[in-house]
Amino acid sequence: MQTLIENVNIVNPFEEIKSSQNVLIEDNLIKDISSSKINTKENVNVIDGGDNYLLSGFIDCHCHIFAKGFHKEENMANPLGIHFYNAVPHSAQTLNAGVTTIRDCGSADLSFKLAQERKLFKAPKVHLSITPLVMTGGHFDLLLPSGWDMEIIYPGFPKGRCDGIEEVLKKTREVKRAGADFIKVMASGGVLTTNTSPEFAQFNKKELKTIVCEANASNMKVSAHCHSLKGMNNCIDVGFSSIEHGTFIDRKTAQRMAENDVSLVPTLLVHQFLYRSGFPAWDNYADEKTAKLKEIVKVHKENISVAYEEGVNILMGTDSGVIPHGHNLEELVHLKDIGMSNDEAIAAGTVKAAEFLGNDSLGLVKQNYIADLLLVNSNPLDDISVLSDNDAILNVIQDGVVVK
Length: 404
What we know:
The protein has 404 residues and is α/β, with parallel strands linked by helices. The protein has helices at residues 72-77, 80-85, 87-96, 110-117, 164-177, 205-216, 229-238, 251-259, 268-277, 286-309, 331-337, 342-348, 351-356, and strands at 2-10, 18-26, 29-34, 45-56, 58-63, 99-104, 125-128, 183-186, 222-226, 242-245, 263-265, 373-376, 393-398, 401-402. The strands form 3 sheets. A 7-stranded mixed sheet has the order 3-2-1-4-12-13-14, with no helix packed on it. The radius of gyration is 21 Å and the shape is globular.
């Protein structure tokens, strides 16, 4: 199958824009790019680019495609099937926002990956963590003071709670067996779980090291949900690949991350969005969550700016699922606010993210690269906020197929 996109301006970060180009896609790859006429097969699908701007589809390095706010009350009320059906509209919202690949940091299982690959519905491609590893009493230990355990589990989806070297070793293996592409660990407290606080580290270094060693045995990366400074340094010490959120990072820790090639996914959007929007009136823990958010939003942007100044590899991630899906590329505006150029922000969600995922044929509009592409009605290098307007994203192409 061939698709020809005519008369587009190609945007790759850190390169001059290539004007008035034609792009030939064959199957799922970019076959040819030229300012001249391209010879095609007779049944080629032609898209008029209309002198608009073509760039790579984005990669959201931190989202939860099944989640709809992680409200325990809804988990109690809904049949289990709703947990899966939610992924269908969430996927459409994510694609419409210009995200063609996601790194799911907890809740999506192997069924979603297989459904996407089998084209059962339109969905972003996914790198799975299955479920985060959680210590007893830690962030996302969902056993409530009432004694009710609100963690969603079912056959093929392991429970995340574990303690001590033997348990974390077994749990890492269970998550791998369930189809994980990387391991996610709750290495600090968080906002959404009652009786935990973001500034405190979770798991000890022996437990964390055990997780990393077992993951590395399968060439898998390990990611840490971590707001805590001590927690971040523990994770750097034992060889984690990325820190998610990084709220209380300081200059010294940022320097250590840069030196040890530990990436940072700051998810700046989620805290601002939640603080602005609040929580449902029926959320029994709304006041506690809001108080924790108030402390985070005070320092998050400033601290991530320090990480950027120290050369930490920063990747785009949104924590969508905690907040509504479909706002993903608003994160780029927040990345610019910490000091990134438009090129750097776009790279954080395209080619840099692809490199982190180990894919050297994704994230750029280049010959022989995967044809995950966006057609946008104005130049994002002039004004990156255009990408946060879903109506400005005219077409989305995934693996050579138009999905918007």
